[in-house]
Amino acid sequence: MASSVSKRAIFFVAAALPYALEILTPGHLYQASKWQTAIVAFLAIFIPRFIWLSIIYPFYFSPLRHLPQPKQNSLLFGQMYRILTESIGSPQSQWMREIPNDGLIYYRTLFNTEWLVLTSPKALSDALTTKSYDLIKPPIIVGSLARILGASGILLVENEEHKHQRKNLLPAFQYRHIKNLYPLFWNKARDMISAIDRELSEKKKKSEGSVPPNIVSVDHWTSRATLDIIGLAGIGQSFNAIEDETNELYQSYQTIFAQDRQARILGVLNTFFPFWLVRKLPFPRNYQIVKAQSMLQKMCLDLIGQKRANSAAADKEGSREIVDDIDILGIALKSGGFSDQGIIDQLMTFLAAGHETTATAMTWAMLALCKHPNVHNKLREELRAAKLPNIRDTESQIFAEQIDQIAYLQAVMNEVLRVYTPVPATFRVAQRDTTICSQFVPKGTMVLTSSVGTNHLSTLWGDDCDEFNPERWLDESGRANTSGGAESNYANMTFSHGPRGCIGASFAKGEFACLLAAWVLAYDSVLVDENMKVEKTPGIVSRIKDGLDVKLTSLKA
Ligand code: HEM
Questions:
Q1: Which one, out of 232, 288, 387, 532, has a CA that is 20 to 30 A from the CA of 315?
Q2: Which residue has the CA at smallest separation from atom 1 of ligand 1?
Q3: What are residue 524's DSSP bridge partners?
Q4: Is 467 part of a structural domain of the chain?
Q5: According to the annotation, is 465 in a ligand binding site?
């Protein structure tokens, strides 16, 4: 690492020095006040450290400084302006395309902090699989998420603790278990369609004979549906968001995960001040979070208590098999590997990781289908040909096999996930000296994978890499393939890879398939504004900035 002198050490030395001088120079040989001494000591260490770290080391000593890199850097801020003003992963995607490289691109940001972008399958496999535990999530990200998710959920823990949790949670996410959740996904898809039908008939009533607008917000409905699904499948508790978005549970969830202006201001403050201080600042959001969190945590604790009681009762009666939990909470409890607080943190993690991601994928899917009517029509034909049950029939039910065998549905979903990449980038920092693609990477180096960049590289996906073409996921006989025609697994970064790749990928795909099939069978959708400008939100999940409104025609599904 460029410097092993941490800021905390500098504060400590500066604070201790006046006392040390008083002891070492008895009789007040030393005249300055304690404050003056502390400030002088602080500056005497801090300024040289700053000059070394921000100017001398990165430009003259860093082993990374000769790697391919973007031009036009600000002297102290490197590429910071672009990083802050463009969507996540986007500047890096451009460099990946334009700067010749052997798997790594180097750039600098605030005060010349050093970053690497991984650009080749070899670099990605080194960093995400072979050396996965040499790279950890950056403390700034972990610190700000820990406030909301709790510090001990699988998304944020590292090293042995992560291995232990992953092992205990994996059974809940294996396909043999996920396939049992498809009926639940389908039921919630049906609830969503019924609720949209009701919204349309309300609109019809209000339009009093004139043509009703039949316009609905896709992101609004998919977000409510995916929350109910992850609530039921994750913790065995529906948020009832589809039925009633004003209920207290749903509102608490919305408060905690809101990405409003105050959340962004607090996020920026976290960069410069300690987390504990920022949490105490008198922002209304700080109080709201505490209140909403205590409600959600209490709900989780009650559910844990209930499950433990059911399980104990079943043990007593010698009928364990009647407690056949299908939700993730039930399976985590059965593993015996988690404390109650540990489980609460997992539940908050699954709510966060499993809700907006899939809702966003669904919203992008509807945009893609509206923009490609031929794909839209073909998908509906294939769904009809598969003879899925009528989504408006309250008794209707499906099985995983029925949905998963529809090759064109799988192809459309895979292409949506590739082209629109809901999680556009992931971030790491080297926790020890390591190597990637034989390049020495010092401890402390920041590492970014631009998943959206990799998913659009012509060297991996061919010249039509930017086109929406579901056919690439079908082989000549029309069967689904899992590579999209790319030669390496690492060409597709939608769910990342390795020990820290998305544990919920099968869950997400099953849920996405049911929601998409239900929507396409129930309605024909067209864009309200054909020329809408599509901008992405800047957050960890790339949503459509102004949401997506479509005009629906109900179909006899
Ligand atoms: C389309 C939907 C989804 C996408 C695109 C997605 C993508 C990702 C990505 C890229 C990561 C790696 C993050 C990193 O390395 O920093 C990740 C991790 C994770 N995802 Fe997903 N995800 C989706 C849905 C879900 C669902 C539905 C769940 C849960 C039910 C889930 C749970 C998780 C968890 C727990 C992790 C952390 C895994 C670990 O660190 O071991 N995700 N996801």
A1: 232
A2: 358
A3: 553
A4: no
A5: no
